[in-house]
Amino acid sequence: MKVYAYAKSMDLGDGKKFWRDVKRISNGKATKYASCVDDVTRNENIAEMWRNHFASLYNSVNDRGFKNIFLTV
User: Fold this and answer.
1) Is residue 49 over pLDDT 90?
2) Considering its fold, how many domains does the chain have in total?
3) Is residue 65 part of a domain?
4) What secondary structure does DSSP assign to 27-71, as a single string?
5) Is residue 25, in this structure, part of any structural domain at all?
6) pLDDT at site 40
7) Residue 71: inside a domain, yes or no?
8) What is the pLDDT of residue 4?
9) CA 71 remoteness from chain centre
10) From residue 57, how far is each of 10, 24, 28, 43 by CA, in Å?
11) 8 A C-beta contact, residue 53 and residue 41
12) Domain of 15?
C-alpha cells in the first residue's frame, strides 16, 4: 500500500520527503497548521483553548511549595 511507503520515509527520518508526498497526494491542499481543533476555529480561539487546557493541567495538583522555590531562584 502507498500509505506504508509514505510512512517509511518518515521512519527513515526523511520528513521533507514525507511532507512532499503528503502535499502531492492531497493536490497541494495540505497545510502544516490546523484550522479547526475540537470544533474550535480561528487561530486566536485555538490558542486560547490550548492555553486553558494546559493551565488546567498545570494547576490540577498541589505544588507543595515548589512554585515559590522556582520563583525565588
Assistant:
1) yes
2) 1
3) no
4) TT---SS-SEETTEESHHHHHHHHHHHHHHHHTSS--TTHHHHHH
5) yes
6) 94
7) no
8) 78
9) 28
10) 31, 38, 36, 21
11) no
12) 2-60
